[in-house]
Write a structure and sequence with these properties.
By secondary structure, the protein is of the alpha+beta class. The protein has a single domain (about 10-195), classed as Gcn5-related N-acetyltransferase (GNAT) (Aminopeptidase, 3-Layer(aba) Sandwich). Helices cover about 30% and strands about 30% of the residues. The chain contains seven helices and eight strands, in the order ββααααβββαβαββα. The protein has helices spanning about 25-35, 35-40, 50-55, 60-70, 120-130, 150-160, 185-190; strands spanning about 10-15, 15-20, 75-85, 85-95, 105-110, 140-145, 160-170, 175-185. An eight-stranded mixed beta sheet has the order 1-2-3-4-5-6-8-7, sandwiched between helices. Helix 5 (about 120-130) crosses helix 6 (about 150-160). It is globular, with a radius of gyration of 16 Å.
Length: about 210
């Protein structure tokens, strides 16, 4: 996939591992996305294409290629979230800017049947630690619709600072939606890892770990 600051990488904690997307992830990615339409669609960017067109198996090769290209150029860090060896979601570091700003934004989603197991907070903590370490960034931002209670609980668990409120910020699910901005800078961790803010890691899964 090429080389950029902090890329490729496989941050991990317990049964949660983040890794670069693979072309062969297409089948499981599509299955999860199609099955979770009601869970995910309200928080997804507006598109003229149907959910099936955007998330069917045939959509993955071009998406995978775009993610790989952006990662090579250091514009983003795309990760599959795996739990006990199985893909259960995605977390992407986007809008990476170096220079005097050294900032990025993070977005994520997870299979609804895996929600509530501390997987997403762990994944976000791993990404933040990676961005402040190998990537060399200073600030990480997460923007969330105020109606998205599940995502708000993720940043609350990690103690991210509420930084602002953006009115009609992004074109999501057919309309310009307000978002709450949460952020954290290196100084706020005072030399500690974001992962240390979690009271516990996700439990080991009951299925057999796979490569």
């Amino acid at each position: 996939m090429g080389r950029a600051p902090g890329w490729p990488a496989t941050p991990s904690a317990g049964p949660v591992v983040l890794r670069p997307p693979r072309l062969r992830d297409g089948r499981v990615w599509s299955e999860i996305r199609l099955r979770n339409q009601a869970w995910l669609e309200p928080w997804e960017p507006t598109s003229p294409h149907t959910w099936l067109e955007r998330n069917g198996l045939s959509a993955w090769p071009s998406l995978h290629s775009a993610l790989r290209s952006s990662a090579r150029r250091g514009l983003m860090l795309p990760f599959m979230i795996t739990y006990g060896g199985r893909v259960v979601g995605q977390i992407n570091v986007s809008n990476i800017v170096h220079g005097v700003l050294r900032s990025c934004t993070v977005g994520y989603w997870i299979d609804s049947i895996m929600a509530g197991r501390n997987i997403t907070p762990t994944a976000l903590a791993l990404v933040i630690d990676h961005c402040f370490g190998s990537v060399g960034l200073h600030r990480v931002e997460v923007d969330i619709r105020p109606e998205n209670g599940a995502s708000l609980r993720v940043v609350e668990k990690l103690g991210l600072r509420r930084e602002g409120f953006y009115e009609r910020f992004l074109d999501i699910d057919g309309a310009w939606r307000d978002h709450v901005a949460f952020a954290v800078t290196v100084e706020e961790l005072a030399g500690h890892r974001m992962l240390s803010r979690l009271s516990s890691l996700p439990p080991e899964p009951t299925w057999r770990r796979v490569p």
